[in-house]
Amino acid sequence: MHSIDATDRKILDLLQKDGRMTNAALAETLGLTATPTLQRVRKLEEAGIIQGYVALVDRAALGQPTMVWVQVTLQEHQLSTHTRFVDAVTSFPEVLEVHHVAGQDSYLAKVRVKDPEALGRLLRERFGAIPGVRSTMSTIALETLKEHWSLPIEPLPVPEKERLRA
Known about the structure:
By secondary structure, the protein is α+β, with helices and mostly antiparallel strands. The protein folds into two domains: 1-56, Orthogonal Bundle (Arc Repressor Mutant, subunit A), CATH 1.10.10.10; 60-140, Alpha-Beta Plaits. 37% of the residues lie in helices and 18% in strands. A four-stranded antiparallel β-sheet has the order 2-3-1-4. The chain is elongated. The two termini are 32 Å apart.
């Protein structure tokens, strides 16, 4: 397991804000030279802490403005039923996230579609065709007030002996 120090945390924070930041700009912001900065980024990538880089796209501009949370209840709690469901639903391009949840429902999926009619087709033709799906319940977002992908990066606590010296 890779230990994340204060510099790594700053790198993660900066790259979440601007994934296209050059290594030179990153190094300058950190007060390091380019080589150790690049080595740190590569170690974070190799450890799987940095999992990739993406362009964040406006879904409305692509004709998918409707965001929906779909709660799914499965008929049985057998592993094969769950496996079939997960294999199927994760292949649907409209499904952005799938979460196995505790409580009454089995799964919670975040979906983006054109409109309620497209949602209806997705639920009837795709979700409904998955063996073991007992029911779905959808909640349509009327307005998205905040949608964010960056994780908050908390600074490391200052050790007590360093606090006492200050």
